[in-house]
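User: Second chain of the day. Same drill as before.
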Amino acid sequence: MKKHSPWAWVPTLYFAEGVPYVAVMTISVIIYKRLGLSNTDITLYTSWLYLPWVIKPLWSPFIDMLRTKRWWILTMQILIAAALAGIAFTIPGPFWLQGSLAFFWLMAFSSATHDIAADGFYMLGLDQHQQAYFVGIRSTFYRIATIFSSGLLVGLAGALQVLTRSISFSWSLVFYLISGLFIALWLYHSWALPRPDEDNERTQKTAGDILNEFWQTLVTFFKKPQVWVGICFMLFYRMPEGLLAKVSALFLVDSAKNGGLGLSDGEFGLVQGTVGVIGLTLGGILGGICASRDGLKRWLWPMVMAITIPDLVYVYLSYALPTSLVIINICIFLEQFGYGFGFSAYMLYLIYYSQGEHKTAHYALCTAFMALSMMIPGLFAGALQESVGYQTFFLIVVAACVMTYIVSALLKIDPEFGKKKA
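Assistant: Same format as last time:
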């Protein structure tokens, strides 16, 4: 059988990984805001959707035992297509909240499982040289999926609202479109994904063996140096972002009488889904370059300041309430660029902490703490904002940056970590 080039499947696989995550985490917030849900309910319901990414290390070991990673990828893609169609079907109906949330939950669990299978398949389907070569390609297409979902699709929903004069029907059409896209991706990947021999080798392990290995992974994870400092860093470094993430999107689209900027869906797609994503990407690239040149320890504090200072942008926006789309775009670009640069320190520390035995499993546990760090603040962020207003809420977010500085000050990092070896 002819083996397809990695170019035939790596870009589309990571595009398929990015779209449902953005739909669950970002598009759901915009839909529920447009349909009249309160900020308290929106942040509470949608923050719980982080849970599959928090607990995915619990079932990831069983994916190897039960089926091939190729099977899991294709199965999850058709489940995601079904969930998207379910959301499209329920949004215009009388039980739009209960129905859409149920299908968002299905999509969240399917997407988290797809992530596990896709990342494992990437290592099986490519040799080490190809893995290194395509690591930037996979990241780029994940970003393209983000722009497509939170930029183009949100903008399309806004354009359809002008034509149909119906918010729910417009979003229903958009979700039917994405469902059709995923059916096409499923059909394409059924042909394009290779069949690595390693993927067909079933691991002869019982559930008891897997549970014992998982226990050993936990034990070694909690025996690492600075374990409690590391966990506190994973949980609190992004606390301001956890508070801000969903409320900032609500602020951008909320009406001026409620203290928001009142952006249309098309304008939101441009500001957050396009300009913001470009700023985030450029900041992340610069962060990686700096850390590879001088090491994480040398750039830790510039990155800490980069991820906290942009929170002041929303303080400015909430008090100034600019109407110029140019000014809003510049502010969001600066904010996201700062987050991208500062987030580099967080991701590099997860890699640093995961070094040693069981590094893959330990990294998965670290990413679970990362998802938890976004989930917990998000649960009550909307209620806090509605009780104090946008202006005071953003000041509280800035005050929460103190936790970021405290946990960063406690870290002990090898000065050589991250530097390019001669």
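The CA atoms of residues 313 and 331 lie 6 Å apart.

User: Great, on to the next one.
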